[in-house]
Amino acid sequence: MATYEPAELARELGYTDEQRPGKVVRDYLRARYPDHPKYQRWVLDEVQAADVRVNVPRKS
Fold first, then answer.
1. pTM given for the model
2. What is the pLDDT of residues 45-54, one digit of tens each?
C-alpha cells in the first residue's frame, strides 16, 4: 500500500514555492480531519491522497 506525505502531494499539485512545503495540503487536512492529533506527522493512504487531489486546487 502506497503512502503519501503533504509536501509530496503539494509538489504534485504545483505548490513548489511554499516557504513551508506542504502547508496548503496540511491546512486542508486539518479542516477535513479535525480529530488528527496536533503535531503528529501526516501519512496519508490512497483514499486520503485522492481526497486531497480532488479538493485542493492545482496551482497555475
1. 0.90
2. 999 999 999 9
